[in-house]
Amino acid sequence: MKNQSNLMEWLNQVVGEPYYFFHFLAFLSYFIVRSSAANILSPQITQHLFHREIQAILAFLMLAAYKMVREETWEGFIADALFFGKIFLIALTLIMDYHLTLWYIVLFSVIYVIAQQPPFEKLGSSSKLTPLQLEALLTEGNTPRFWLVEFRASFSSGCRRASRCFPELSITYSNKNLSFGIVDLGLFPNAAEKFGISPGGSMGQLPTYILFENDTEVSRFPEFNFEATPTPPITTRLLARHFELDRLLLEYVNGK
User: Fold this and answer.
1) Contact criterion met (CB below 8 Å) for 92 and 52
2) Single pTM value for the model
3) Which pLDDT tens digit goes with each residue over 115-150?
4) From CA 51, how far away is CA 70, in angstroms rounded?
5) Which of 61, 107, 142, 170 is 20 to 30 A from 132, alpha carbon to alpha carbon?
6) What is the pLDDT of residues 179-203, one digit of tens each?
7) Which InterPro entries did the record assign (predicted)?
């Protein structure tokens, strides 16, 4: 049922979001070019292209199935599926004509420049905060004891891929003792230094998640030495385990 809901949500985005709509038109154009080329290409090349298309479809389905199992977010799965699709499409056009290959490389480059993959827009039980609002909430005595805050930026591909995790996490674990907040470092870049986040040229530390107890930082992900070890893909399970959210929830239920 959840997969069907995600599918309908994505189909709606195909029409409404330029990123998905432009990719849809680009892939659709291949079938138009392919049908026109069938009248021009020699029978040997046509047969060879057909065999490679079958191989590409099978390889794509295998990779898509693998990513569907491994990826927890729909945004991450779609990003990977589009990437694989572009690789296979470009490889197939090489069989027809390298000028066509160059045209598709330029086309996908233009799409990359003018349109970004939209993030998951719903907030769940989390709240969008400015740095000043966050600072005030952490120092006030009448607010929840714990705050888990996601620092993100809309121009970071990692943030867009993981944008669904935090709202879903907040729905499961939000209570009177634990609240969830989101700070957009794209809107407030000066807050990065204040909270010890070093985006760098590759935006490798985004998104960053910090758990506060009152106004004291308890834990963060990724750690300060994130460059020493590869950061695994962000999932709700990973965040719940890293910040021990099940323990915090049990403590709240038991009145501790």
Assistant:
1) yes
2) 0.80
3) 888 888 889 999 999 999 999 888 876 677 899 999
4) 29
5) 170
6) 999 999 989 988 888 888 876 544 4
7) Thioredoxin-like_sf
